[in-house]
Design a protein that fits this description.
The protein is an alpha/beta fold. Helices cover about 45% and strands about 15% of the residues.
């Protein structure tokens, strides 16, 4: 049996209608998991789920729209997943927000709170909702998509970086609490990846050129570059790996 075989697993991936989340969901399905595609808009989720079902067989993907800022919607997401696919064995907390680009001293309170709520509190809610199934099965994998912004200061993404640093501590604490239940909790810290979410960071040709120049591997990331790390962390290959953050950035932070 492959160390990366996810057959029989049910995975929820938030923010999976595009970008990194979509690539992760596609690769989890390719390795045998049944995946729930979730983002705010149902039609976008339906489109991705249909493509996955076409590629890997009917019933592989289920589309359930939910806003990470609404706890009741997240509770419904898990209830519907259990009813239609079964207990959740893999959770990927990918959805996030960044409503402010600029120095920390110019961010408004509402924007700051929104960043913290959507990038930290929502992940806490999602993990709380996933743990009962995983503890009961004595098997589970939780992956939080953080950022290399968590590892260094920023002159333009301060609040976002703070929230992503907090996610790393969320991962560590949940890992310590749940190791005895054989539930693993880890993070991925991507560098600059070419997604709609990061468009403002790479659409400027000069900024993109500078970013590439800082990257030892000589290119920006693609969503698929992050998906492999998620498959690893979700799979038996990572059966003794918990509380960690895997940096996937083409070498920028080294």
């Amino acid at each position: 049996m492959s160390l990366f075989d996810l057959s029989g697993k049910v995975a929820i991936v938030t923010g999976s209608s595009r970008g990194i989340g979509k690539a992760i969901a596609e690769q989890l399905a390719a390795h045998g998991a049944k995946v729930v595609i979730s983002s705010r808009k149902q039609d976008a989720c339906d489109e991705v789920a249909a493509a996955i079902n076409s590629a890997y067989g009917a019933g592989t993907a289920l589309a359930i729209a939910a806003s990470i800022s609404d706890k009741a919607q997240l509770e419904d997401l898990f209830a519907r997943t259990r009813a239609e696919l079964g207990p959740v064995g893999i959770l990927v907390c990918n959805a996030a927000t960044n409503p402010h680009y600029g120095s920390l001293d110019t961010i408004g309170d509402e924007q700051f709170r929104k960043t913290l709520d959507n990038n930290i509190l929502s992940n806490h809610w999602l993990i709380q909702l996933a743990l009962p199934d995983m503890r009961a099965a004595r098997d589970g994998a939780i992956v939080v998509v953080s950022s290399i912004g968590a590892l260094r200061g920023s002159s333009a993404l301060g609040a976002y970086s703070i929230s992503k640093a907090a996610d790393l501590q969320l991962v560590r604490s949940y890992a310590v609490e749940n190791g005895r239940h054989n539930v693993r909790v880890n993070a991925i810290a991507p560098g600059l990846v070419k997604t709609d979410f990061a468009r403002a960071l790479y659409e400027n040709p000069e900024a993109a050129e500078a970013a590439v120049a800082r990257t030892p591997m000589g290119r920006l990331g693609e969503p698929e570059d992050i998906a492999g790390a998620a498959v690893l962390l979700a799979s038996p290959a990572a059966s003794w790996l918990t509380g960690q953050a895997i940096v996937v950035d083409g070498g920028v932070t080294c």
